[in-house]
Every structure is written in C-alpha cells, then in structure tokens.
Design goal:
six-stranded antiparallel β-sheet; 31% helix; two-stranded parallel ribbon
C-alpha cells in the first residue's frame, strides 16, 4: 500500500484578524501554530485515509512577523512515514495583497500518528514520490530536518 507526496499536499489560507493578533498588531504565535497543526493534520489524513493525532512538533522557526490584515498561506506535505507515523513538513508565508508581496514566515516538522476508530495506532501507506518534483520536495524536507537536528545537537553540546 502506497500513497504519493502529491496526494498529501494541502494549502490553507487565513487572514490575520484582530482576534489573531498581539498588542503589536502581529499574528499571535499560538494562532500560527494552530493553523500549522490543522494544515499538517489534513495533509496526514489525506495521505493515510485515516484519522490522525499530533505526536510531535519539532523546532519552530518564526522567521518574520505576520501583520494584521495580511493573508497567511500554510502549506503542508508528507515527506516520510513509519509504520503508524507520518512526517509532515509545514511552511507558512505571508502575503500583502496591497503591495503584491510575499515572504516566508514560519516552518516546522510535525509527526502525526494514524489512529483507528478506537484511537489505536494503525498502519499507514508507504510514501511514493513518482515525480522529480515530489522527490525534490521530499529531499529538501529531509535535508532541512537533518540541518535542524545538527543545530540542536550543537546547541546542547
């Protein structure tokens, strides 16, 4: 049983409203994390055709703030699997429609576990990357995750 990276690809859009902002008029980190978790879960569910639960979120990089009124685009795709686990790359960018600009703002790697109706872990398909574009995305996510891990080891040494 296999599923493709493309089958998991998910894109969500939000607009930063006053209830999503801090006292500086910028998106709350918690709101951004919530959007990332939802988008990642949808990608994992599309891939596994099962319900999923969030098992972990690795180091989160907040690269740039997102201002009130900007459009937030959250993209996620599966880049790896275990027996019951699904590894998902989640990236966020902000768009300013008035200025026709966009920038990367946030990224993280999530792990989800597929569960059956009783909440017990259940097997997931193997990841297939039949196109060059899918292989590039998978490889980029694997490289980025490895780099993050190496930086963490350096900080802890």
């Amino acid at each position: 049983m296999t599923a493709t990276l493309a089958e998991s690809h998910t894109e969500m859009t939000e607009i930063v409203l006053p209830n999503d902002t801090n006292t500086h008029g910028r998106a709350l980190g918690g709101a951004v994390l919530h959007w990332m978790d939802v988008c990642g879960a949808i990608a994992a569910m599309r891939f596994a055709n099962e319900k999923v639960v969030t098992a972990s979120m690795e180091h989160v990089d907040f690269k740039s703030p997102i201002d009130l009124g900007e459009v937030v685009v959250v993209e996620a795709y599966v880049y790896g699997t275990g027996t019951t686990s699904i590894e998902v790359n989640v990236e966020v960018r902000a768009e300013n429609p008035q200025q026709d600009t966009e920038r990367d703002t946030t990224s993280s790697f999530f792990t989800f576990v597929a569960v059956d109706d009783d909440g017990d872990p259940t097997m997931v398909p193997d990841l297939d990357c039949p196109t060059e574009a899918e292989r590039r995305l998978r490889d980029a996510a694997l490289d980025d995750r490895q780099t993050q891990f190496e930086r963490l080891v350096e900080r802890m040494a």
